[in-house]
Amino acid sequence: MELRTLGKSDVKITPLGLGCWQFSQGRGLVSKFWPVLETQVMDDIVKAALEGGINWFDTAEVYGGGNSERALAGALVRRAVKPGEVVIATKWWPALRTAASIGKTFPARQAALSPYPIDLLQIHQPISLSSIEKQALALAGLLKDHKVRSVGISNFRGEAMRAFHRVLKEEGQVLASNQVRYSLVDRSIEADGTLAVAKELGITIIAYSPLAQGLLSGRFHDDPAALKAASFMRRQYSGLNPEGLKKTEALVRFLQETAKKHNASASQVALNWLVRFHGDTVVAIPGATKVKHAQEAAGALQFTLTKEELATIDTLSRS
Ligand SMILES: NC(=O)c1ccc[n+]([C@@H]2O[C@H](COP(=O)([O-])OP(=O)(O)OC[C@H]3O[C@@H](n4cnc5c(N)ncnc54)[C@H](OP(=O)(O)O)[C@@H]3O)[C@@H](O)[C@H]2O)c1
């Protein structure tokens, strides 16, 4: 897979990384979206991602209170991956905390991911007891001390992203990325200016939930009974319900039709569109609970959508 530069940092990533929320192993509220995976399954998913050419992994402190970070690092160690051979992105959880906690909790993040260095440290979401300025200064401190290679934010909208970027710039540092929900069924970052600000400032958009948590794979359209097996939280959050299926029927059927022509899957067409439609600005981090998911993600750029296909997907997803 080709490499892209993460924002204006020196970190190089493949357009598709692996999202590791699914490695939370049931601990904490946000883990309840996903089943508890066996260590062997997570190891095999990481192996499939690496073998398919994916060079980076997204995790977070809040994904099982470090469980996901530890599962990822363990899988990489068992695969004999050397520190520095892959890119690791994690996130600090800001709610009910001040910016001082960024530095205080950093050693715990390093320990959970050991022996792998943290290449990208992100603020998980905008709600914090500290201002944007204080959080940005704390991240700038980690950059100056060479503790992380790059820094980013997540779930920040246009002008808040601009403000974060400004503080880092004044410190001689760059805001590399903003990780936001973005897929063919949620294009709000286009409407609210977030994508435009990212393009203007050279900040990479990391698209999370790029498959709308499985909705875009078409598997629920083909077998609506499968909706019952998805967790309650996921059904609420991702439109995994009869109405959501109805709204996306035409789009998903076109993804499936297009996939057949390219000997691919609907998920691969959705990922291909997402990381190609806006040039180099958008990269994506699909999550996986099965080896096949990671294999499909890794193979999602092995074909080229025609201009007409890109445009039809665009139109159907807007309607
Ligand atoms: N920053 C944030 O606030 C934030 C929020 C959400 C997510 N994230 C990050 O983004 C990553 C991805 O987001 P996400 O997990 O919410 O959504 P996603 O990647 O859109 O959906 C992942 C789910 O889709 C299904 N899937 C994946 N590949 C498939 C394939 N090829 N065929 C059929 N089904 C497939 C699987 O569902 P089943 O398990 O049911 O098979 C998988 O668990 C997370 O792992 C996390 O790292 C960040």
Plain-language structure description:
This protein has 319 residues and is α/β, with parallel strands linked by helices. It has one domain (4-214, 273-304): NADP-dependent oxidoreductase domain (TIM Barrel, Alpha-Beta Barrel). 44% of the residues lie in helices and 12% in strands. The protein contains 13 helices and 10 strands. The strands form 2 sheets. Strands 3-4-5-6-7-8-9-10 form an 8-stranded parallel beta sheet, with helices on one face. The chain has a two-stranded antiparallel sheet with strand order 1-2. α1 (39-51) packs parallel to α12. The two termini are 32 Å apart. The mean pLDDT is 96. It binds NADP nicotinamide-adenine-dinucleotide phosphate (NAP). Residues 19-22, 58, 124, 154-155, 179, 208-214, 217, 219, 265, 267, 285-289, 293, 296 line the site of NADP nicotinamide-adenine-dinucleotide phosphate.
